[in-house]
Each structure stands twice: as structure tokens, then as C-alpha cells.
Amino acid sequence: MLYTLILLLGGVSSYFGPWWTIAPVCFVSCFFLPRKPVPAFWTSAFASATLWIGYSIYLHLGAQTDLTSRVAGIFTAGLPALADVPAIALVSIIAACVAGLIGGFSGLAGVKISQLTRPPRG
Amino acid sequence: MRLIKHLWPLFFALLLIYTFNRSWGVIPPLGKLFNPFVGFLQNAERNPDTGNGEVALEGLHGKVTVWYDDNAVPHIFAQNDDDLYFAQGYVIAKDRLWQMEFYTRVAAGRLTEVVGPGALEYDRYNRRIGMARTAAAIADRLKNDTVANRILEAYAAGVNAYIRQLSDKDLPVEYKLLNYKPEPWSSYKSILMLMNMRHTLNGGSNDSRITNVLAKYGPDVVAGLFPDYPAIESPIVPQGTPWAFSPVAIPAVPDTVTAPPDTGLFAFAVPEPHPEVGSNNWAVSGSKSATGLPILANDPHLQLTLPSIWYQMQLSSPNVNVYGVALPGTPAIIIGFNKDIAWGVTNTGSDVMDFYRVRFRDSTLNAYWHDGAWKPTIRYTESYRMKDGSQVLDTLFYTHQGPIVYHKKQSTNYAPNIPVGYAMRWVANETDGADVLTFYYLNRATNYEDYRKALTYFTAPAQNFVFSSNGGDIAIVSNGKLPLKWREQGKFLLDGTLAAHDWQGWIPREQNPGVKNPPRGFVSSANQFPADTTYPYYLDWRFAHSSRAIRINERLDAMVRATADSLRMLQNDNFNVDARRILPRLLVSLALDDSIRHSAEYDALERWNYRNDADAVGATIFESWLGDLLRGVWGDEFPASERLLYPSLDRTFELINHEPGAKWFDRVDTPDTVENIDDIICSSFKTAMAELRERFGEISARNWAWSNVKQTRIMHLVPNFTSFGRTNVMNGGGSGVVNATSGKHGPSWRMVVQLDTDWPVAYGLYPGGQSGNPGSKYYDNMIDRWAAGQLDTLLFMKHADEQSGRLLRRILLTPKDR
Fold first, then answer.
1. Helix, strand, coil % over all residues of chain B, rounded to 5
2. What is the largest CA-CA distance in chain B?
3. Nearest-CA distance from A87 to chain B in Å?
4. What family, per the record (chain B) (predicted)?
5. How many domains does chain B have?
């Protein structure tokens, strides 16, 4: 549920918003759909990473020119060890790290602040 | 405590956003870059050939139709000239915005703002030679020129209309990688683009190095080794052409011709001229062509880069219909053709950069001695903004000659010493004229008279403008401001205190070297001497080596019933005139050494047909050896450490062929032995072959193929973006052959135009693609065809409604109501 919500909301709002739009999406989703902190973190992280990787692969496959390799080449220029790794894999890993970290901690923040404003009964 | 426990993820998330939002050193902002919704993947084009569209733009007066053909060349049809240049700016910006902005930052010395302090010295140099200051003065002056101002303003408005449309995700990928945004365009920036070209074509000097030779060896050696005209030359104006003018008085040579520097003054070296930056152009008359009408060809040689320096387009309004290449950032077509005429350019390369030793009154540098009086310097403070926002300040002084590119500050110990630097007089800093109008009027020219009138607007650096018309005329003129000099003025560093050393005005423009419809039936240029020694004015003591010119003129001389394809083949001619001139003599010496004579290298060289073809092993051996041979002959007397200029190839070849006993062949660093010419030839050959073996292994048809050794590469303008470039472009050529493709330089646009009384047929192509976007299939799509020596047939439309299967999509630009 949370995963799908972030994916949908994140997809729509990322289309219009700045690059960090996924952060408020995870925050708000976790704020209103309370989870335990750890699952909130991982669900947000995975959903964010899925969104970025999925759209990256979609754009990569649809392109007529392999811009992914050209851009990845700038990062791997001094690192021959990475020369044989497919560029889209490298790009996906970086995208997953960035989106996962930001999404995960934003989701966690949403849960934590939700706990703060709505203290657990009892 | 509870607050911290609940709030820390929020702060940490914000910190992550901050971290990934900015660049850290050379690491770009990873968040922005790798988010597929706004990052680089937005630049990966799906299918650029689809999508007719309509865009409403503020500033347009009427509708403009832009057709894109199957090579992504835009064909712009506007209803008036303002809209035409507006649309030109808009359309070029769409494909090349980052590139044009980058060039203006280079010319203005503002790279530090986007790449950081690593570019400071480069920026400082570009500022200190005065380019930005001059561009600003020109732009300011052109505000009063109704025609020039109008096209520059319209163009800028078009570029800005595009910039205003851009959202973050639409930015060219270089902005995303370097993390900055485009600034608004202006006519000043278009002038900066032209300044950048002035610098590329004329921004080097040998004056200091030959002055060092003069100081070390004296005038006799200079006269003997550095003559003012080569032994073998084929000048642009054919020998024997009468000069149809009475020359103005030529200034007398003063008693003192140079003011050499004190030791170590040149802490900051002026770049040497780039011999690879040259060009070919020619036109054959109807008497030589199969059609009975002229055919014209041009291929300017520049550094090969991606995005390409040129952009193909057709510009059409009720007043003009022209096709050719434009410089991104500048209005009009620079090299091209219309229904009636075609034109092209090569660099003239005359001496238009001189240095004056300045005598300052004191260490404040506030005044300098000139013509018997102390005169005030002008002082400017240049400020450089770094990427992080910090500033560096630099002081720059001007005399009436120009900027003091380098001044050495003395320690303030009250000693009566006079600080000395050199002021630079450089034609690129002339602020009169309106180069852009030359192209504006050429675009509209219909005959020879229009062409000559258009040329009068051009200032610098002088270009050999070749011309042909369907009226049957062909012509070439070395056009631009040429200083009126005494013989050898500026061959050496000059004395800034002497009025006689100032430039003495200009050669009257109509007396610049040029020729119309010569009896030989063709005109041509390859950066060689514009005229032989009968020309009354001094232009320079050295022009580009004559090998390309000799070959072009030989071929054109022999040509009958020439077609566009004959000229295309000449553009791709790989014959090595230098090898023909010198190799037979060199082989005689090599054969004296048994170990060489029996080697595979000698065998390959002897069997070589003098063609720098892609698979030629002989070309590899000859070209690789030439440098070692020159070092063998001159390296001892003219060591690099003393910054001495080598005599020219022409002089060296003459010495080898005709003066084998010259003392220069004996090495001065071996006092006990006397080397002769054979020793130098054989030892340099062995050195060169050892080096080739070390780099490419034992000789083999594959490893030693010329294309494999030459390694032509076309790299992105940002040196670090190696993966945006193309390496291993396999082709023949060489800096001294007509197909002037070397490692990093080469024909940056090849064009052949066959004029017709009805409608011209034209061919052209450049080593790159129309799009500046590395994520477009049109980024580098012409490179392979270029390397193979092919040309595309250019689609020159008669009107916007013309049907052609090559037209893929149409964009309609419409005025937007405010």
C-alpha cells in the first residue's frame, strides 16, 4: 500500500517538481499511513529507488543514442575496474543510492514526526 | 531528548538533499543529475525526427516556418529579416546553447565561474590580451549602426526566447554536469564569438623566438635562415599578375628595428601560431568546368571538436535565401551560397600581432615614454569570480598600442630601475568595422560588385575570401585590415618608445592582394603568401608552408571539365608534396647506412607513393621522422630551452637539397667530431624508428598504418568529458597535405558549390552533427562520412512550400500576444 502510494504520488509529482520531490512524497505518505519506523524506512527507500531506476531504464531503453554510456564514461574515466560494468547498471546503482537514502530517511522522518504529533495511546 | 529522537531523520534527510543538490569539487550534483525526471536521461533523445509543432514566441512579428531535413538541418522561412535572425538565434540555441555560451565565457575570460580556479591562468591570459574589452567596445559602437544592431538584437532576442522556455530538465547536459545555468544572450556575446574566432585564427606569435635568434646569431644568420620569401611558393595571386594600382608611400625602415627583452622577461609565453589552423579554398571558372559555370570549394581547418564549430542552415526571407554554415552565437551564414553566388574563406595569416617594449617612468607603471614624451597608461582592474563566489583581482595596463600582456613587477626598494614589459598591438583589438555585416551582405550578394562591397565591412583577421558567381566570375581577395608597415616591421619585438615603430596606418583596402578571373581559369588559397615579391607592401616574412598550395594549384592547373566531384576529390587529396621534394635526397643518405638500407622501414619508405593514405606505412615513417630530422638539424644550434625559432620547413628542405655542406649539419654539441648531412639524416631516422617501434611495435601493415599512428580524434570542448568525444577516426591526411587532417585538427567543414543559372547544386559536410546534445543521434552522425571523404547533397529549398522527401518535420514559430 505505502509502496504503491509512493510510487504513484512520486511518479506524478516528480514529473513536475524539482529533483528532490520524492522526499516530501515519502514524508507525507509515511506521516499519514503510519508504519513502524524500520518498515517505513525500507518501504520508502525501495519505492523511491524503484521509481528512479524504473524511469531511468525506461528512458535509457527508449533512447536512440547511448547517452548513459557517455555520461557514465565521465565518472569511470579514471577507474578501469568499472569499464566493463554496463553503464545503465552504474547509473541505476547511483540513482538507487541517492533516491533510496533520501526517500528512506524522509519516510522515517514522516513516521517519527507523526509519532511526535500523535503520541501513541497508552 | 525526545525531540531529537524524533527530529533527527528529518534533519538527516534535509542534509542529504543539500549534499546531492550541489557539486563537490569535480563531482557534479548527483541528485539533480541522476534523477531521471530532470537529470541527464532527459537529454537522451527518443526520436528527434517526429513532432511537427507550433511555438508561440514573444518578439516575433510574423509567422516563421522551420523545416528540419534528414540531417537535422533547419530551413528557416521568415516574412521579414528581423524575424529571420530572431528565428536563427532561436533555432541555433535549441541545438547549441551550451556551446555558444561556453565560447563566450572563454573569450571573456570567465571560465573560472563555471569550472573553478583551475581555469584562472587561462582566463587571465584571455582577459589580458583584451578580447572582452574590445568586444564590449565593438558592441557598444554597433548600437549606432542601424543594420548591424538590428540583426544582432533580433538574434539575441531569439536566443533569449529559447532560454526563457527552458526548464531545468531541458537544460543541455553540460549545464547539468557542470551545475550552472545559461545567462541571457546579448549582441555583446555575439561579438565575443567573433573575438574567439579572431583569437583562434590570429592569436599566436613567433616574434619573441625569432628575436632571440637575432640576439644570438645576428642579422646575417637571420637573413640567411629566415628569409622573407620561401624558395618554393605558389602565391594566391598568380605570379606575373600586374598590380593595377599606384601604391601609397611605404614607411622607411628605421635605424633600430627591434628592442629585445632582458633575460627572463617573458615569464608568460605568448602561444606560437598553430600551423594546423589553416584552410583551403578555390574556385574554377566555366572554362575549366563541365557545366561551363564556376564551381567553388572551401574547407576551413580548425581544431576538431564536438559540438562542431559550424552549424548548417538555410535562411530565407523576402530579401535573402542563403544556405551554408553559421558560427553558433553569430547571426548570418559565414560560409555558403545563394542562388547566384558562393563564397568561402581561408585565413590570410599576415603579421597582425606585434609587441612593443615599453619604458615606464617608474614602478607605478602610470606613465611610459613614447615619441619624446611621458604618456599616461590606462589602468584597468579585472576581477575573476570563482565557482564558489570568491573573487580574484588583477591589474592590467594599456599603452596606446594595446594591453601590456605581461608586466613584471619590481620589488619596491627605491632602486632607480625601470620596470619593463611589452605592449601588444593586435588587429583583433581593432574596434572599427562590422565583420557581421560582411556576412550579412554576402548572404544577399548577386554578383562581383556586391561581393566587393560586402568585403569592405570586414576588419579582422584578414581572410582570403574566394568568390564565384553564376554570371561567370571567380575571384579571391585577402580581405581585412592590413597594417601598413616598413619592410620586416614586427618580424622582431619592437621598441615602444619610437614613433617609427607604431603601425603606420593601413594598406588601402582596394590594394589588398586579390585577383579576378585570372587567365589560368582558377583562383585558390591555402594560407600561403598572398602575393609574390612584386607586391609593394610588407605583409609578413612567413606564411603557411607552401605544400598544400602547390598541390592544389598543380591539380587545378591540370583539371579540365571539372565537376563537383573532381573538387571533392581534390579536398581529399593525400599527396605529400614535401615527400616528393625531399624524400629522394633523404633516401640517398639513408642508403649509405647498411643497417638502414636492409631494414623493413627503409623498404616501406622507398616503395611509398608519397600519399598520406589511411593505410600507408610510408606516410607514418616519413611524418614521424620529419620532427626528428628537424631536431637533428636545428636542435643543437636552436635548443628549445633557449626559446629559439627553427628555420622553416622550406628553408630546411633547401638546405638539404642544395647546401649539403652547410655548417648547420655539424652538431655543435659534439666538438670532437664533424657530422655531415648523412650522419644527421641517418641518426634522426634511427631515433624516429626506435620511437615508432616503442609505441606501435615492430613494423606491420596494421600497426604502422598512418591512420593508426595519426589517431585522429574529435573531442568534446570540456577536456574531462573524454567519453563525449570520438577517438580512432580512421582516415588519411596530414597537416601538410590538401586533406589537412592531423591528430586534432582538420577540415571543419567541406563544401563544394556548383553554380547554375537556374539553381545551384551544393555538397557539404562537417565532422560532427547538427545537435550539440551527446544524447542525440545527430551529435556525431556526419563523422564517418567525413572520414570517408564523402559529401552530403545539400537541400537548398526555393520556398517554404517546396516538397521534398528529405523534409522530416516542421516547426511553426508564431508571434505571441503580450
1. 35, 20, 45
2. 98
3. 12
4. Belongs to the peptidase S45 family.
5. 1
Residue B350 lies in a domain: no
Query: Where in the sequence is the domain holding B676, given as residue range(s)?
Result: 577-710
Is residue B345 domain-resident?
no
Q: Is A23 on the interface with B (CB under 8 A)?
A: yes
How far CA A90 is from CA of A104, B30, B31, in Å, comes to 20, 13, 14
Domain presence at residue B352:
no
Between CA A44 and CA B463 the distance in angstroms is 64
φ/ψ of residue B502, rounded to 5: -65, 155
Residue B181, sorted as left (phi over 0), alpha (psi -120 to 50) or beta, turns out to be beta
Q: Which amino acid is at B121?
A: E
pLDDT at A122: 39
Q: What is the CATH number of the domain that holds B586?
A: 1.10.1400
Q: How many CB atoms lie within 10 A of CB B675?
A: 16
A33 contact B CB<8A: no
User: Minimal CA–CA distance to A58: which of B38, B36, B47, B176?
Assistant: B36
3-state secondary structure string across B318-357? CCEEEEEEECCCCCCCCEEEECCEEEEEEECCCCCEEEEE
ipTM, two decimals, is: 0.96
Mean pLDDT of A42-55: 95
pLDDT digits (tens, 9 = 90+) for A57-93: 999 999 999 999 999 999 888 788 887 889 999 999 9
Which residue in the set B13, B30, B37 is minimally distant from A106, CB to CB? B13
Q: pLDDT, tens digit, for every residue of B541-598?
A: 999 999 999 999 999 999 999 999 999 999 999 999 999 999 999 999 999 999 999 9
Residue B613, burial from CB neighbour count under 10 angstroms (0-12, 13-18, 19+): buried
Q: For chain B, say whether A9 makes contact (Cβ under 8 Å).
A: no
User: How many whole angstroms separate alpha carbon B345 and alpha carbon B194?
Assistant: 14
Is B13 in contact with A77 (Cβ distance < 8 A)?
no
- Partner-chain residue, chosen from B40, B46, B168, that has the shortest CB–CB distance to A64: B46
Given CA atoms B227, B231, B237, B243 in this order, what sign does their dihedral have?
positive
CA pair distance B94, B532, nearest whole angstrom: 46
User: Comparing C-alpha atoms, which of B357, B399, B410 is closest to residue B376?
Assistant: B399
Set of chain A residues whose Cβ sits within 8 Å of the Cβ of B46: 62-64
Residue A102 to residue B13, Cβ atoms within 8 A: yes
Exposed (0-12), middle (13-18) or buried (19+): which is B185, by Cβ within 10 Å? buried
Q: Which residue in chain A is spatially nearest to B38 when comparing CA positions?
A: A19
Does residue B671 sit within a domain?
yes
